Amino acid sequence: HMTDVDFVIINAILNTYNNLPFHNLYHVLDVMHLAAILLRQWNHYASMNKHEKKLFLFIAIGHDAGHDGRTNSEHALMFESIHSYDDLQSKTIDLHESYDGSVTSDTGSYNEKMHTDLLCSILRKNKCSTTSLNIHKFILMTDLRQQESFLHAMEKNREWEQILILKLADVGHVLRPRKVHTRFVNALLMETYKPFNRIEKAQDTIKFNETIVHPLLKQYESCCVNSSELFTAYEEQINGWKFKINVEWYTVMHLCNSILILIVVLLFLFFGNCSEYFEYKRNKNDHDELEYAF
After folding, report:
1. Rounded to 5 degrees, what are φ and ψ at 263?
2. CA-to-CA distance for 65 and 28, rounded, in angstroms?
3. Pairing of strands 95-97, 103-105
4. Model pTM?
5. Residue 231: HSE in the Cβ half-sphere, 13 Å Cα cutoff
6. Considering only 18-22, 96-100, 111-115, 258-262, which range has the smallest mean pLDDT?
7. pLDDT given at position 140
């Protein structure tokens, strides 16, 4: 049950999003919806209290709050151009405890820090308690560079499974209908300025989903009620991209064969005309010599 304050919080979070090709309201509402679906199929959903469910929803909505379209690498380059290396080290290191208990640095997760700060400031302003979930940890783990450390965590507890759901919802548009998924793929390529042709786009999409989404989906399988429909949707999309590659290669090969046949025909006509021309010249020379003899 949502209160007036909850709607104020949601509206404030949504207002932090910019008009970008990918990281926009369409993306965040898609993530929120998919996260809600995945959360309801989670084995421990019934054990979550109302505030915990509500805070998880706020995190899903605010996981990309304030995104300006630049990647963490682009932010790092911009930051390094302004500050010296020493300043960079002193101003961006933020230590936290990882899943295996070691202390690590999330230096470089510029976007995730910004999203966390914006979301927490909105929640604090509206007196919403943030103690039930570790917002910093949830959003930090959406950084794709955290993928390996997350998947190989020693302790996969209740919190780990909740973060898994958030991560899968964030990158899981491959589970959506074909048109919706393709729109997100095209939007992301537009935002990241990747001038891929159709074959490269299909190959890049397959690689991303096989290395990022599928491992998350396999982990989710072990902690949810039923994931068969998700795997069916995933396989259909991947097979669709593979089919598109085959069609493109067939089209290219067919075009190459057509060009080759055209070249052969032109060469045949050219050399055929040449032989006729030389035959004509030879006969003409013989005729001229015969006339000269007479």
Report:
1. -65, -45
2. 9
3. antiparallel
4. 0.78
5. 12
6. 96-100
7. 93
